[in-house]
Amino acid sequence: MDVIRTNSISTEAAVPPAVMLTFGVALIVGLWFIGKEVIQTVGTNLAKMHPASGFSAELAAAAVVMGASTMGLPVSSTHTLVGAVLGIGMVNKDTNWALMKPIGLAWVITLPVAAGLSAISYIVLSNIFLILRR
């Protein structure tokens, strides 16, 4: 919100409580409706997991996310964990490659769709704020 108003990013820009509440509710609703399915897909359908392999995948994903964050690289913890589970499946020769196809397709589609929606949102919001400033 601060960026649209001032056209700059402040290190101390406050996030309005309504925005935090909206995103918190959206996260909870998303987990409520599709969380179990996603956990099932990654945790058991992509590769057979047992406690030691699950721990290894989580440890590897956490190390990659922390390392990338330390270097200032934006990474997705979800994508990193899927990659770690794939690694376990490859070692155990038990990767469900048929299931990986739609996941990979979703990864490829996500970037341009998010870019397009972001551009449209920016144009709409910028025009709204220009009208309100007059």
Task: Describe the model.
- The longest helix has 37 residues.
- The model has no long low-confidence stretch (mean pLDDT 88).
- The chain is 79% helix and 0% strand.
- With 134 residues, it is an all-alpha fold.
- The chain starts with a helix and ends with a helix.
- The protein has three domains: 45 residues, no CATH class; 48 residues, no CATH class; 39 residues.
List the helices and strands and how they pair.
Elements: H1 2-6, H2 17-45, H3 51-70, H4 77-91, H5 97-133
Helix pairs in contact: 3-4
Give descriptors for this structure.
5 helices; 0% strand; 134 residues; mainly alpha
Calculate the mean pLDDT score and round it. 88
- The number of helical elements comes to 5
Strand content: under 5%
C-alpha termini separation: 18 Å
Form type: elongated
Radius of gyration: 19 Å
**Major β-sheet, in short?**
none
- Counting DSSP E segments of at least 2 residues, the number of strands comes to 0
What's this entry about, in short?
With 134 residues, the chain is mainly alpha-helical. It has helices spanning 2-6, 17-45, 51-70, 77-91, 97-133. The model has no long low-confidence stretch (mean pLDDT 88).
